[in-house]
Design goal:
With 354 residues, the chain is of the alpha/beta class. The protein has a single domain, classed as Rossmann fold (3-Layer(aba) Sandwich), CATH 3.40.50.1820. Helix content is 42%, strand content 13%. It contains 13 helices and eight strands. An eight-stranded mixed β-sheet has the order 1-2-4-3-5-6-7-8, sandwiched between helices. Helix 2 runs antiparallel to helix 3, helix 6 packs across helix 12 and helix 7 packs across helix 8. The longest helix is centred in the N-terminal third of the chain and has 18 residues. It is globular. The two termini are 36 Å apart.
């Protein structure tokens, strides 16, 4: 196992001081202006402030700086397990990837989850809170389920198709336990949703640089929270209105860090795929969710429509006044109120787990 550490130049380290000052200034401004919010902004002043902090931090700091100050995904998993009393159970998947069990590995159903963050940010504590909440609530409805969360190599430490290869290996590990595909589900948000799309594409149309993975039957289902399926850096007609945690400013650095010198294709940009590309996806049903206030909403709606043209069993749920990946990032900010997207995800999984 090799998890590379990020190093910074002296200039990048010295830049933290003015960066923190600008982030605090943005927070102060958000606190003042947040007293007069509209429906195009966060539901609460607390979330409004949190979104502003996240927006400013991700636009002001570069990818290396963010990776330098944020704990890696596997460390966050360890911290969460110690806080909750959960057992540490990580699997070395090879090629620099790790898989982490949340819940009982012997559960009847497994959700393989790929976290988001533009391929450049690690999983934060909100993810593990989301996993725990989902397992708890599904258990309350009589479902036996565990989550297997992938720690993949962040970009630009590694570039496409490394992360997709690691995601395929993650699913292969679960299917080899062995498990019936009908008891295995995929889930991912933002860039993680991109990986879910890439894995489904690989199962139906093997990537030329990744070993094929034969699945005997359909996977139980797949959830895509605000999938990032169009790695464009300019978005005509997309307007920022203050209700999201991201801006279009992160698209260029994060997309270029992931793709590197490679050409984009249907595995990186499923929004460009023809309808027939989706028709042979080996999965029973797909749920796509989005926030009503997120800047990617038009792109997600267009993607969902394209998906439905080739694969009928697709549902789109839009959470009123919710941001990008609200089920996770609201929890990361400390707001435990269930989102519409989160409730739809829970209902979707519960309906498919027999």
């Amino acid at each position: 196992m090799s998890l590379s550490k990020v190093t910074l130049t002296l200039r990048e380290k010295l830049d933290f001081l003015p960066a923190v000052a600008s982030i605090l200034l943005a927070a102060f401004y958000a606190l003042l202006t947040g007293l007069w919010r509209t429906e195009r902004q966060a539901k609460t002043l607390f979330l409004h402030l949190g979104y502003a902090l996240f927006r400013k931090a991700t636009t002001r700091l570069n990818t290396s700086q963010l990776q330098y100050i944020l704990p890696p995904s596997h460390k966050v998993y360890e911290i969460h397990s110690k806080k909750t009393g959960g057992l540490l159970d990580s699997v070395d998947l090879g090629n620099g990837a790790l898989g982490h069990w949340i819940g009982d590995p012997n559960a009847d159903h497994v959700i393989v989850w790929f976290h988001g963050g533009g391929f450049s940010l690690p999983a934060n504590m909100g993810y593990f809170k989301f996993y725990t909440q989902l397992i708890r609530d599904l258990r309350a409805s009589g479902k036996s389920v565990a989550i297997f969360s992938l720690t993949y190599t962040l970009a630009p430490i590694a570039t496409y198709p490394t992360q997709l290869r690691q995601a395929v290996s993650c699913l292969a590990h679960i299917l080899a336990t062995p498990r019936s595909p009908s008891t295995v589900f995929l889930g991912g948000d933002s860039a993680g949703g991109n990986l879910v799309c890439g894995v489904l594409s690989h199962l139906a149309h093997p990537h030329p640089e990744i070993d094929p993975l034969a699945v005997k039957g359909n996977l139980g289902g797949a959830v895509l929270i605000a999938p990032w399926t169009l790695l464009d850096t300019e978005f005509p007609g997309v307007h920022y209105h203050g209700g999201d945690i991201i801006t279009t400013a992160v698209a260029a650095p994060w997309a270029s860090a992931y793709v590197g010198s490679r050409k984009r294709d249907y595995y990186t940009d499923l929004s460009h795929a023809p309808a027939e590309w989706f028709s042979s996806f080996p999965v029973d049903s797909v749920l796509i969710t989005a926030g009503g206030n997120e800047i990617m909403l038009p792109i997600i709606e267009d993607f969902a429509g394209r998906f439905k043209q080739g694969f009928e069993r697709v549902e789109l749920v839009i959470g009123f006044r919710e941001c990008h990946v609200a089920p996770v990032y609201n929890l990361e900010l400390g707001d435990s109120v269930k989102t519409e997207q989160g409730m739809a995800i829970e209902k979707f999984f519960a309906g498919l787990m027999n």
